[in-house]
Design goal:
Layout (H helix, E strand, L loop, with lengths): L5 E4 L5 H10 L1 E4 L5 H7 L5 E4 L7 H6 L5 E4 L9 H6 L3 E3 L6 H16 L2 H9 L18 E5 L3 H14 L2 E5 L6 H7 L1 E3 L2 H7 L2 E4 L13 H6 L4 E5 L8 H9 L3 E6 L21 E3 L8 H19 L11 H11 L9
Parallel strand pairs: 1-2, 1-3, 3-4, 4-5, 6-7, 6-9, 7-8, 9-10, 10-11, 11-12
Helix pairs in contact: 1-12, 5-7, 7-8
The chain binds nicotinamide-adenine-dinucleotide.
Nicotinamide-adenine-dinucleotide binds next to helix 5 and helix 7.
Amino acid sequence: MADRPIILSLTTMHESGMNRLREAGELRMASSLDPAVLHREIVDADALVIRTAGTIDAALMDCGKKLRVIGRHGVGYDQVDIPAATERGILVVYTPGANTQGVAEHVFAMMIGVSKHFPGQMKALIEGRYNDRTKLVGRDIAGKTLGIVGFGRIGKRVGAIAHAGFGMKVLYSDVIDIPREAEERANARRVGFDELLAASDFVTLHVPLDASTRGMIGREALAKIKPGAVLINTCRGPVTDEAAVLEALESKRLFGYGADVYTIEPPPSDHPLIGRADLNIMLTPHSAAQSTESLRNMADEVSTDVVGVLQGKPPINPVNDPAEVAAIRAKLGKPPLDRGF
Ligand code: NAD
């Protein structure tokens, strides 16, 4: 069919989402993430679907002259040049909330795992040093103070679970006003960043990666962190300075570190934090949202939104302002988004 929209996807996803995209248009899988290849393959695409991989910059968008919507399967959209998309009249949609529970549970897996010395205990067991179990003394998390940096969807869920499930004292810092009900669900108290660092037994990061958060946990912040604290990063690698974290672990300023994300992804196998069970480091390969439930939610939400936009419906979860995008499209002489197919 001549007018079936072309959907270029850089990722596979849960079959329910793949099917929705296939029904709505011609679904093409990108053959590589190499920019030169993508520049060719995006030429006649009406929609682009992405996950965490791939840099979606102005140069790529300029090759996609027909592009009207970019759908991000997931939450952080730092790999997309949002201003460039807006300037070209391209809508960006994403899946906020789809993996909130999955990531929140991952945070507790790490908080508990690090507190109970899982890295060292598992290594000792594998290496036949069973009796070393008594050398590594862990801690319970109940009743401890949890500092949440970024009290958004995930931060709030983590706070609510910490309060209800473990009786933790919850502190948070954020840059926006937080509704009182959300604070009450976690019995959370807003504090300044420095106070949070100084008072928390656990610090967990839930901010987007942007200019305000890049490197926010560096040497300066780690010098202020409560001695013996556990640091958890499931948001974005560059929010922490990995070299400074390694120093803080070596000097025992930190009791342990849990991370799902890295400054460079994938991290090289000789990354200094990988394989350091001796420093009580628990790492996963950006897999916090890899639960059946999160994967299905993300696939359903991104495919529904991309297909809806292609069919002329208003976006459900836009990143950029649909009215601004529509106005820019009109100025550029591009077909309106509500034209439909
Ligand atoms: P969200 O937008 O609901 O919450 C982010 C919060 O951070 C907001 O309340 C915001 O005001 C706050 N914030 C922004 N800048 C800040 C700053 N400088 N200091 C303090 N607070 C600041 O997003 P979310 O759904 O909670 O997700 C948070 C981040 O987690 C995402 O941006 C994404 O990068 C990451 N994430 C990772 C995975 C994973 O697989 N590991 C999955 C989902 C999300």
